[in-house]
Amino acid sequence: GECHPCKTKQCRKCNSNVITCDECEDKYYLFIIPGGKKDKKCLPVCPKGTYKNGKNCTPCSLHCNKCKSKIPCNECVQPYVLHLGKCVSNCKTGYVKVNGKCVPCNDKKCVDCDGNNLAKCNKCKKPLYWFNFKCVPKCPKGYILVGSKCMPCSKNCHLCQKINTCKICKKGFYLYKEKCYPKCPQGTNPV
Description:
Blueprint: E1 11-14, E2 21-24, E3 29-32, E4 40-43, E5 50-53, E6 56-59, E7 64-67, E8 73-76, E9 81-83, E10 86-88, E11 95-98, E12 101-104, E13 110-114, E14 117-124, E15 129-131, E16 134-136, E17 143-146, E18 149-152, E19 157-159, E20 168-169, E21 174-176, E22 179-181
Parallel strand pairs: 3-6
Antiparallel strand pairs: 1-2, 3-4, 5-6, 7-8, 9-10, 11-12, 13-14, 15-16, 17-18, 19-20, 21-22
């Protein structure tokens, strides 16, 4: 028989066809080139999306760019976001995307919050209502429920049943045609 050098550079052992490498030289890692052909290369560093696993470069989990083992992932391929060690297309309810990671909102009753201020809630879990970036069981006096948000009644109004209309004015104001005035309009008297 004859001895033939392996075709792959830095290859220590190759199979009988000398094309396919089975083991790399020291300080090199066996990497299977993606694309179905199962071609292999010996590399000094495992490429993105793979990790050192013994003498091999093993692929990270799906859509993962950086990992030290199959799970958890440390960084996802754009546009995916990292949620509890996995790459997902969107953050789950109660989480918001911050620097490529899903981070929980400060308030557990919050469905969606501001990525720059996790305490600032944008939407609440039912049956709660949104009020000044917080979740409340009912709207405070001077506010009316519109959809799932507590919106302010008209100016100087203490109690309203519809937005821009008033039922009871704040102390020192007078109700006239569903609006509050500091004094009764001309042609009317306080009762």
